[in-house]
Amino acid sequence: MGLIPKETKFFELFNNQMENILKAVSFFKKSLKENSFNDEAVKRVKEYEHEGDTITHEIVDMLNRTFITPIDREDIYMLVNNIDEIMDLINVVSNRLNLYKVDSKDEYLYEFFVNIEESVAALSNAIKNLPESSKKATRIMDYCIEINRLENAGDSLREKAISDLFEKEKDPIKVIKWKEIYEVSEAALDSCEHVAKTIEGILVKHG
Amino acid sequence: MGLIPKETKFFELFNNQMENILKAVSFFKKSLKENSFNDEAVKRVKEYEHEGDTITHEIVDMLNRTFITPIDREDIYMLVNNIDEIMDLINVVSNRLNLYKVDSKDEYLYEFFVNIEESVAALSNAIKNLPESSKKATRIMDYCIEINRLENAGDSLREKAISDLFEKEKDPIKVIKWKEIYEVSEAALDSCEHVAKTIEGILVKHG
Amino acid sequence: MGLIPKETKFFELFNNQMENILKAVSFFKKSLKENSFNDEAVKRVKEYEHEGDTITHEIVDMLNRTFITPIDREDIYMLVNNIDEIMDLINVVSNRLNLYKVDSKDEYLYEFFVNIEESVAALSNAIKNLPESSKKATRIMDYCIEINRLENAGDSLREKAISDLFEKEKDPIKVIKWKEIYEVSEAALDSCEHVAKTIEGILVKHG
Question: Domain for residue B78, yes or no?
Fold first, then answer.
């Protein structure tokens, strides 16, 4: 990876993929904060997801047309799919909120999105440094450690949120709904960590 | 993959594996349609699963006795295990229906199995074309796109089914049971998509 | 793998990782049997998990500093992470028991830990034989088959436990809590099988 061919287009597209997710998460977080999460917001998150799919297909198509790739073909393929999963899970949270007709004004949910935004931002920075991974390995690893820390914080947040839910919410149907929403939110943080692990794996392979 | 050795036996066994799943799914769907899903049917789905295990072991054994394989050893190994997971999940749906003592006459569940049957059939066709993957890449990709479409349809179906469940079912225990049954049914479609992704990954690697 | 370089340190660390998990599981099982699972026990399981993290980081660090590895870099990386997941899930069961304020005196839960202890012990033995994998392939495969058998037994145990739960427990909140605890316990057995599959994959690759 020290001698990267001029195939920087893949990295550009990964950056686009991450920027799109970051926009979706920031929009989602803002709509939670301003208590403006409504049908229109659900639609807009869905649009970000479609945009993500478009970029994903563009990367896979390019992979099929490119002979020499800057990193292993299978690693590009794993990376693009794992990043896509983050966007999918953000969209699932949005869908569930809408579908389950719950009040999106929830302190824990907002905290999750503060956390998710930070994790997506750290991941975006890690990926920006990938083209010079041999020089920037330490910096990339620092971002991965930060993503890991945020995933641990998400675990604690989920525990607190669900523990609280069991104590305060007496309607079992609402318990079922919110438990799932918190779990999917936490899964979004898991998926960021999953990408970080994929990146670590790439660094290890070329170490 | 252009120059495939005469090791076509692996592909034959993959075809057997898919045919067995297709038979299991068709049987399951029919028993749901005819409202004849009973202890006998649970036993028969279990038998299909055992047959699947036998084929799976046959492939892994052959892999351990074969020096030159038509596609990478690790890809054969991933493929056989991912296909096996489809059969496992079909069996889990059957088990849950039986174990939870719910009435299997359910419109959404039947719709899931219509969808699963189509997805398994498309996957079976994709795998039939694998031995000539360099010539048939476009056709294989078309089947993979179809499987992806069916997985998306499954997501929508699950959303509709669970949304309906929350609105109409007042017994929380029944909500818990059916929510899981719908989720496992959708997971069967996910597992088909997972195999399609593995196939895409193989094509990408040899692209 | 016949000609393993003197890089036996990786295998030593894998053994340490497994031994730590085995200690955690034995302690957990004992505290369930003696009905002494309390805040102190939760803390101690957490300490085992931290110790596991330390060993995991040690292996990844060594991987980054080692040029020639006894088995493929990516396989070492997958192995260390998959083993770590077993420890994580044990800790999740402990956390949930504590968080959900349920009575840990439960026959099924104890049976799960009898099963998990056996599976972890078999995995530990499989890994002890990895340095001589070409000579000991049959023995390693036997341990993997045993782990597979225990995972199947875990599936049946979960079915029985949840079926019983649905029949006897009338409080839906308690159903939700115990269903998850049984599912995570079973996931710990799945994670053992996952490591066994990774080992099988390594044997297949070098077969």
Answer: yes
Residue C64 lies in a domain: yes
For residue B102, the tally of other CB atoms under 10 A from its CB is 15
Q: Is residue C26 part of a domain?
A: yes
CB contact under 8 A, C73 and A204: yes
Is residue B4 very low, low, confident or very high in pLDDT (cuts 50, 70, 90)? very low
CA B83 from centre of chain: 6
Give tens-digit pLDDT for C128-149: 999 988 889 999 999 999 999 9
Q: E strands of A35-117, at which residues? A: none
Note the ipTM here.
0.83
Of B162, B176, B204, the CB nearest to A73: B204
Indicate the number of domains in chain B: 1
Question: Of C113, C98, C117, C101, which is closest to residue C182 (Cα–Cα)?
Answer: C113
Question: Residue C172: pLDDT above 80?
Answer: yes
CB contact A2 to C (< 8 Å): no
pLDDT value, residue B1: 43
d(CA C48, CA C46): 5
Q: Which secondary structure element, helix H or strand E, spans residue B72, and what is its range? A: none
Q: Residue C6: what pLDDT?
A: 44
CATH number of the domain to which C157 belongs? 1.20.58.220
pLDDT of C12 over the 90 cut = yes
Task: Give the mean model confidence (pLDDT) for residues A158-172.
Answer: 95
**Is residue B3, in this structure, part of any structural domain at all?**
no
Decide: residue B185, CB within 10 A, 0-12 exposed, 13-18 middle, 19+ buried: buried
One-letter amino acid at B30 equals K
CA count, 13 A, side-chain hemisphere, A60: 21
Task: Read off the pTM.
Answer: 0.89
- Confidence band for C66, pLDDT divided at 50, 70 and 90: confident
B50 touching chain C per CB within 8 A: no
CB-nearest to A166 from C60, C63, C100 is C100
For residues C62-77, average pLDDT: 85
Asked if A99 and B163 come within 8 Å (Cβ–Cβ), the reply is: yes
Q: Is C207 on the interface with B (CB under 8 A)?
A: yes
Minimal C-alpha gap between C121 and chain A (Å)? 27
Neighbour-count burial of A16, counting CB atoms closer than 10 A to its CB (0-12 exposed, 13-18 middle, 19+ buried): middle
CB-CB under 8 Å, A204 with C81: no
What whole-number distance in Å separates Cα of residue A162 and Cα of residue A29?
20
- Please tell me the distance from the alpha carbon of residue C165 to that of residue A179, in angstroms, as a whole number: 19
Dihedral sign (CA A189, A195, A196, A201): positive
Please give the residue range of the domain that contains residue A126.
Answer: 9-205
Q: A-chain residues within 8 Å CB-CB of B205?
A: 73-74
Tell whether C99 is within 8 A of chain A (Cβ).
yes
A46 CA to chain C: closest CA distance, Å? 30
